Amino acid sequence: MEIRGSNTPLLEWTGDGLAIGLFEDAVELTGELATLDEKLAGSIKELIAEEEFKGKQGSSTSIRVGSHSPVRKVIVVGLGKPEALKLETLRRAAAVAARTAKKQRCKTLAIHLPILNDDQAQTAQALAEGVQLALYQDNRFKSEPEDKSPQVEQVDLLGLGGQEAAITRANQIASGVFLARQLVAAPANSVTPITMAETATQIASDHGLQLEILEQEDCEKLNMGAFLGVAKASDLPPKFIHLTYKPEGTPRRKLAIIGKGLTFDSGGLNIKGAGSGIETMKIDMGGAAATLGAAKAIGQLKPDVEVHFISAVTENMISGHAMHPGDILTASNGKTIEVNNTDAEGRLTLADALVFADKLGVDAIIDLATLTGACVVALGEDIAGLFTPDDALATQLEKASEISGEKIWRLPMEEKYFEGLKSGLADMKNTGPRAGGSITAALFLKQFVKDTAAWAHLDVAGPVWAEKENGYNGPGATGFGVRTLVNWVLSEV
Length: 493
Ligand code: BES
Ligand code: MN
Ligand code: ZN
What we know:
The chain is an alpha/beta fold. The chain has helices at 31-39, 43-49, 87-103, 120-135, 164-185, 193-207, 216-221, 225-231, 286-301, 346-358, 373-379, 391-404, 437-446, 482-490; strands spanning 2-6, 15-22, 60-64, 71-78, 108-112, 154-158, 210-214, 239-245, 254-259, 261-265, 306-316, 328-330, 336-338, 364-369, 384-387, 408-410, 428-429, 454-459, 465-466, 476-477.
């Protein structure tokens, strides 16, 4: 599919589908839309008058146009209230237009939507992202593609001629999101620690990043006892991935991004019981997938920032050499951990990854992890939990998330709750009481970062997967995190 910026006037565009946006309670059609309505013999006015279409955000309807017309279908997309219009509204509107065009078997589509704050580049990027992300398909595991209807082949963003650079940016970012979605959607017999390392190798060679893969022996030398404790039961070798993007010249900032990389989480000997969703636990590398997706995007966008992409990848399995509940592990910073629950494995792998990142001398570290069911209970499927002691970093991430439309919400790091992790034998246990489970998880992670680097943790257990179609996401893996991370890396601070 090709997306282009075009200055062809609305009334002169010819092709299969023409998508226009209408605000909620748009009483009057003006300008080109009024002329279009005349051409359509008042069909748009009729839709509004008969209350078939109210302009609610996310709603859409299509008007069949006579065979004499230069367009086959007019797709009307709701934009909600004009005063609430933001980038995400436009991204979602473009997604609705693209999905509707596909259903209507349109091969060519023009999208005519308002330009936000006169910012053509930002608008073009958001629209292109919406189209790309909405039309994503994954046929890798079908013997034959199920959907044989025609594909949308060409999309013209009207009024946005000359915005090729912004569209290219959207395509590069989308390629990172697609990689993350593919990695998350693929089952655990397809995406393994070995194939994750291969993916990192591919990114490094495609986009000129440096790559270091630490094998088990290397991790042993670094005393990564927490990561290796989790990895012990698996028949597959653990892989500690470290990709580095270095700009030409002196970097403006040095950053590290860490992703939880459990290619499967059975729970270990505290095996996941009935109703715990064990069959969905291929998604437990969603943080690592977003990290690799961001690496792929950053490798193409080439900002003047140094970024380290890190993931300690393994599976949490059961076997004769599985860690026992109650085992005491020593992490690479020397801290000891009593593993009172082998299903709280993510924080063990992250502990050694955080210690590793901290030694790189970066300005800030962000980790993304499908860490706790408790966070999904707190915030639901669509919103990630943000935990950080650093207000400035919280603000940076909230801004990046506002632009991406990936929702995050800050939760408190209530120090008092660390009492729940007190161990009689070791420095700490790996789990505390059920209540406040996502907070104690964050407090556990904090033990492995020094105060010198700004650090934030995003619990993405909910939003890495969308059960149903939701805007440009779902059904399936969302690639959550990639776009917020990219915005954060690109942001001027
Ligand atoms: N990978 C899970 C968390 C998870 C749950 C991700 C649901 C996605 C959806 C994590 O390793 C885990 O098992 N966490 C436990 C922690 C508990 C043992 C303290 C949980 O959330 O139940
Ligand atoms: Mn677990
Ligand atoms: Zn897990």
